[in-house]
Amino acid sequence: MPKLWLAANWKMNKTVSEGQAFVGRLVEQIPGLIKPGAGEVQVLIFPGLVSLQSVATAARDTTIRVGAQDCYFEAHGAFTGEVSLPQIKDAGGSAVIVGHSERRHVIGEDNRLVAAKLRATINAGVLAVLCVGELAEERDAGGAFRVVDEQLETALAGLAGVTERTLAVAYEPVWAIGSGRSATVPDVEEMAIFIRERLVEHIGEERGKDVAIMYGGSVKPGNLSGYMSIRDITGALVGGASLDADSFAALYREMEGQ
Question: Is the pTM of this model over 0.85?
């Protein structure tokens, strides 16, 4: 497994052709991405579902992994507008973001629905990137750890067969996503330690200590190294700064220098 993870969440941005062009430009900037086994940074790209197959095809001869920003927990059926894990895998996806704050707070997904999607993803043998994090008012009221604990408790309870190959956790304080306001390194460190403790508690020490913990929330070139200095942070889930290949390449080089 890679030591570090750098993930791009494009959200509802980029057309099919723009996604393909991004991969080409990124490989120009980082030639090492076409050398299997080179480097310790694993790149993950989460395009919109319309672009999933085309981006996966563009990345076929590279070390880049491609995934979906969401999934449904049923494998097939009358669920108009939803996308299943078998469909994602067949399109070339090998990872899924589960429980992103925009799914929780804009679309209205609750902890139980997130847990169902997490189980489906892990059971399908696909890497699940489970997002957790608190709202600004929850942090200001002293409830950040309670909120994250509840999110983890519901998602991880009773899970079987979880390994670092099927689960990663992304701590994304909701108030820092796309706001330009980054969490402080001490705040992220404190939460990362807490998340690690809960992982060990829920899935056991041997597996819990190896699950990647990423940080996300206004990550950009210049501030990533501070977060990567935290012992329990082993990756970043990047939004806005991942939309430009040159910016994303700069993040890659910053992470590789850790």
Answer: yes
Catalytic (active site) residue 153: no
Is residue 172 flagged as an active site residue?
yes
DSSP 146: H
CA gap 229, 254 in Å, rounded: 11
pLDDT at 158: 86
Name the H helices within the chain.
16-29, 52-58, 85-90, 101-102, 111-123, 136-140, 144-156, 185-203, 205-208, 224-228, 245-256
Q: Are 153 and 119 in contact (CB under 8 A)?
A: no
CATH class belonging to 4-256:
alpha beta
Catalytic option among 102, 109, 172, 254: 172
Q: What is the pLDDT of residue 2?
A: 59
Q: State the pLDDT at residue 49.
A: 97
| CA separation for the pair 108, 23 (Å, rounded) | 32
